Amino acid sequence: MFVSLEAELPAYYLNGSGAVLPQDFQRVWDSFSHNGWIRDDFGVHKNLDNPHGFLKSGHSISTDAGPIFEIVVQPDTTIQTIDAQLLELRNLSLNHLNELGIGLLGSGVHPLLATIDQDNYLRYRTPRRAYDYAIEKRGWAHHTMINIAATQEIIDVDIEQAVDVVRVMHCLTGLLIFLFRNDPDYSGKTQLLSVRPQAWYNHVPTEGQFAEDRHKVWLPEKPMMDWNDYLYLLWQTSPMFVLGTKNNGAVYIPQHPHFWEFLFEAPSQGWQAARMVDDQKRTITPEWSHLNQSDWPYMGLARLRWQWLEREDTQLDELAKAVERGNGHVVGFLKENLRKVVIENRSVAAAPPGEELVSLALIVGIMQNFASVQRYVEVMPYDFWVKLARAAEIQPLDSRFDGHSVINMLKTLLELSRTGLLQRGLNEDVYLDVLDKRLRDKLSPSERMLQIFHREGIDGVIRKLTY
Predict the structure, then answer these.
(1) What is the pLDDT of residue 278?
(2) Of 6, 89, 233, 405, which one has the fewest beta carbons inside 10 Å?
(3) Among 169, 160, 144, 110, which residue's Cα sits nearest to residue 349?
């Protein structure tokens, strides 16, 4: 089992003037590039040997939606190795950042940047073309996304089991939010103990041509039972997003077909596409390589990421035939054509300092003991878990949902995960001690931070969360 972690950390000016602006991140990347890192549009990366054949090799450091500093470590086989890499990269980053008067916070919400209006949003957001497209063409309220940060756990999974893993992780979303939320509403305008979920499901339109974009975020309305269900969610429930990455060079199709339509219902002369940078038109035809670009526009709270083998374009016809014949044929096709599949869990808020690897340990234990966790989840219907996820935004950790004690449900999940970690025999179960304490104290990080906020104000929160 190979694992990795994406750690997002809010960035702020140490002089107290607020969240970091995009132009100052450019100074950060310049500083890194002078010390052997490779500069790209929105960050830096360092290539490393990749003995594991994982999706990516090396480390990367970047920004995404706004003043959020993201560190991605090289995949490895043990949590301890990931821990050591993250510590090294964070300390290296702080050396560069502190020299420029910038600090980092272990927080799931930027305490100095509330959700803001569209005009102020443009001051802070990372200027990616994909966001311009989403706002201007699809009507997304992307400013709700600018102040949230996550810890995203990445673990490779077997192709045959992958969709079961996604379904179970979707079901566990509520319990994970309860346990790891570190993103309360400090403004007091709401009583939310976790603001990240609303940022996700409130930034897509609810009506008009792109109302189906609701399928790209939050949790699916129905559980996905096999690969056909997952590919349908990914490729046929909403108009396709863009071809390419979040950066320059990507295009969109003004006719807004679903991705499946793009692949298999192309006009004889090809699709007329528009470059996002200037709306200049060009003709494109569906290619095998487009499959590699079709996983990231689904932004649900757990998703599969993949890397396809290089094939001739004629293999697209074989994909269509496999889907038509059913899940068993799809699994066979994917086994022949995918190099790697990983689960990316997206429901965990950025961790407080010193607790960064706790969620990775829990998820690794779940994956190791997956059959038992799946049996536990399937005792309750899917709708129960979806409603629990909404309850986790506002209910105290020490509460009940539909007659069930939240703390008792979490104790069961921890024991199932601990069993998995013990099976690995790598002494990784010690990372779960933090979670045992949370359950004994009956307080999530959000509730602890609100206690500090009410005693010491936002300055106390900053002091507690600063690295």
Answers:
(1) 86
(2) 405
(3) 110
3-465 fold: Creatine Kinase; Chain A, domain 2 (3.30.590)
Task: Look at residue 57 in the predicted model and tell me its pLDDT.
Answer: 63
Residue 6 burial (CB count, 10 A): 18
Low-confidence ranges of the chain (pLDDT < 70): 50-57, 115, 245-249
User: String of b and e for 276-315 (b: at least 16 CB within 10 Å)?
Assistant: beeeeeeeeebebebbbbbbebbbbbbbbbbbbeeeeeeb
**What confidence score (pLDDT) does residue 120 get?**
81
- CA dist 30 and 18 (Å) reads 22
Query: At 100, which amino acid appears?
Result: L
**What pTM value is reported for the model?**
0.95
- Token match 């071809």: residue? 243
Contact 224, 233 (CB under 8 A): yes
Dihedral of alpha carbons 238, 243, 248, 252, sign: negative
Please work out, in degrees rounded to the nearest 5, the angle formed at the alpha carbon of residue 367 by the alpha carbons of 90 and 220: 90
Selection from 5, 125, 130 nearest residue 60 by Cα = 5
pLDDT for the residue 56? 55
- The span from the CA of 321 to the CA of 332, in Å, is 12
Which among 257, 149, 139, 242 is positioned nearest to 196, based on CA atoms? 149
d(CA 64, CA 350): 14
